[in-house]
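ARCHIVE CARD
CATEGORY: sequence design from structure
SOURCE FIELD: tokenized fold
FIELD CONTENT:
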């Protein structure tokens, strides 16, 4: 696992992350999500759904890497979408991943 994604594993172990479509949507709606990370290989419909939902609720969205690498970074099988629920972790991930070439989109 690369250094950029190591912060995701730390957030998972600290219990400051939710994964999966429904749980992430719920966290966005409740404004519990501080940053949403979406796999770059998600379908265009899924990308649109999360871009629209995050924009509507003012939650930053980061699109990059692939579902296998996101899952491996948190010690789970493939993961399509993750939400960080603590601002400190969200800031750390944005700083680390915002500068890598593997991130396609951040807002």
């Amino acid at each position: 696992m690369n250094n950029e994604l190591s912060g995701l594993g730390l957030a998972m172990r600290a219990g400051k992350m939710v994964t999966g479509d429904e749980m992430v949507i719920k966290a966005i709606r409740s404004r519990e999500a501080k940053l949403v990370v979406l796999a770059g290989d998600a379908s265009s419909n899924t990308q649109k759904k999360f871009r629209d939902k995050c924009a509507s609720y003012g939650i930053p969205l980061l699109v990059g890497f692939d579902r296998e690498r996101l899952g491996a970074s948190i010690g789970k099988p493939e993961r399509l979408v993750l939400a960080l629920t603590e601002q400190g972790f969200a800031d750390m991930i944005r700083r680390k991943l915002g500068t890598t070439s593997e991130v396609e989109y951040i807002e």
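CARD ANNOTATION: Residues 3-106 form a domain with the 60s Ribosomal Protein L30; Chain: A; fold (CATH 3.30.1330.30). The chain has one domain: 3-106.
SHELF: design records, drawer C
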